[in-house]
Amino acid sequence: MSGLTTYSGVDPATGKGRTLYVGDGLIQSQEPCDRPGLMVLTPGLVDLQVNGYAGHDLNEGVLEPDAVEALSEALCRVGVAAYLPTLITASENDLCQRLAAIRKAQQTLPHSKHMIAGIHVEGPSISKKDGPRGAHPAEHIRPPSLAEFERWQVAAQELVRMVTLAPELEGATRYIHDIARRGIIVSLGHSDAGEDAIIQAVDAGACMSTHLGNGIASDLPRHPNAIWAQLGEDRLGASLILDGRHLPRSTARAMIRAKGVDRVTLVSDSVKFAGMAAGRYTSPIGGDVEVSKGGRVSIAGTPYLAGSGASLLDILGNFTGYVGLPFVDAVTMATRNPAKLLNRSSELMPGDRADFILFDLDTETGRACASDIVFGGESVMQ
To answer: Are 243 and 271 a contacting pair, CB within 8 Å?
Structure first.
């Protein structure tokens, strides 16, 4: 097969080796490979919650398509093959401007065209209470409005695929019903809901919990509470931020076991400050932000996190060492599960785009290091 580039690795789900033959940005063919010492071959990552990364911010000022493209390019270099740009609570005018910019980038710019699989609108219909509100600006929190949602979709040309909201707000149940019927992934988050409101939301069509265990009050009743209610609801999948800061190890393990690997999606929730040097920064969202030496991003002077300082690749790399579960589980939760929600393939079959990662696994520490990252058939690893 002259003229093609070959990549060999072990499928973590089956334990079997295979060689991919890549040309023209696609997987042209494959064959079994039993060579010893193969690295682990995984699909490119799918991230349902990206606010920014490496200095690029989707929620600051007037968003330009070139800024979206810069974010897309930065993400592909850390293994992301597809993502949902995530806009948080803001005025309707700002949301619509940013939605239109993302759509234009997705229509016209090369990385964004292949990577942007929709838009996630996180808010503005969330709890106003400190704790559940997180870093979202309180002055722009408002009740859900189908008319406003329709204006979002006009601006985004139907690119909004996911909406996070608090189910306890007035009108939320009807709103969930109406947008879920349109194929929108409705996710519960930044909420102080009781058990009844959560059940009503699921009955209406909600199917996910956004970063379960975060965006919630720091003190809760032992039971029932919003975490137990969502964990116990089999119709809800859950996204988790397993960056070592958002959830303790024991909590992460318990949540994955309660939901089952097939109903959990790993997300980065990365923000502009992810990967930046330790220090204090000014942010239009939540005011001043502190980045610790360990990469923790928090609202300055408070215990509240302001998003994640980790990429999804970072989360996979540390998953087994931190959570203590098999690396294949992390791969499933960062590729197959979110891809399924977005009706995308994650099988790496002939004819598919050549977006994948080769990992070197350290069996002693559980650390997974990316040895090569391929995007559209080209190595993009820095």
So the answer is: no
